[in-house]
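re: ur question from earlier - yeah i can do the single chain one, its not a big deal. heres the input i used so u can compare w yours
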Amino acid sequence: MNGGVLISSEVEDLEAESFSFRPILDPFKNPLMWLLAAIPIAVYFEYSGSHHLAFFASAAAVMPLAWLMGKSTEEIALRTSESMGGLLNATFGNAVEMIIAGLALYTAATNPELVENMILVVQASLIGSILGNLLLVLGLAFVWGGIHHPNQKFNSQVSQTNGSLLLLALIGLVVPAAFAAANKSASEQAIVDLSRWTALVLLGIYGLNLLFQLRTHTELYATDAQHDEVVELSKKQAITMLLIATLFVAWMAHILVASIEFAAEEFGIPHLFIGVILLPLFGNAAEHMTAVTVAKKDKMDLSIGIAVGSSIQIALLVAPLMVLLGWAFGIGMSLQFGLFETVVCLVAVLITNFIVQDGESNWLEGVMLLGTYIIIAISFLYM
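and the output i got, formated as tokens:
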């Protein structure tokens, strides 16, 4: 030790002795870990032919695995620069959605008879992720935080910037839908081509948004969140856990996607409801818990950053990537998500922007967001 600072070798020795997976995986300390038992159950149902039950078992298994991915990413971010940490969180923030949507498109590419349903599920899951983050997650955060703190404040400038960016990103979803509605004679290929060019523009905007956050305007997004965190894993352990969790998420997502048709037929659940409500609910459950937990601690900037930031990633990164991936697979994946789906998504963005513009929140505003989400969820159940 030199002047109170540990040299690299001493830090590595200390890490090897001090850090362990046990507290993180202990279900008595983290109840979400009980759901890891759903992994062998999902495998059993899948290979025994009970595919409709495998759908729900694999969906349940995704929740703790998604949390482990997020936890390992946070641990790696804590040991890097703030900019690199932000990039890691941006990259892995919606990894589960990308894996599920990517596997659904692959399934469509290898099973031509499922192309229509799989594209519908992918498009619905993207819309559902945006709706879930803006209405369900933010609503729960406002309610739970408002119960413990009568009036919570946050950085209105950042919220307005993110809100404007999200509204701009939504144009990429509105224009193809409006184009299809206004041009009844337009071919499906024309809509797909429009979507592909739009996807490239959205990806460019996302890249510039990362530059804005991580380079040119870092002071706007600076928080004390990292300083409050306690490092629980060594860097090697965190990377190992990230890789293992990602592999298991891919496995469970494969079972989940393969069993969608069986669940829809067995339980009479519309594909649209599965995509908009169920897939985002299971895939984002861990992220939802984090946003609500930090709201209770009165860290509303972080809570809103999780909810709105995730929606921005879906609109600017995940959706365009799925369009390009579909292009690579030879599938006509477009940003034409349907008029109703696009309208309710636009309504969610406008309501969120209106509520966060004053830089304050309370539990009643959360109830408004939750009420909106419930009405929309019921409507998709009957579509």
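The longest strand covers residues 152-153. not sure if urs matches, ping me
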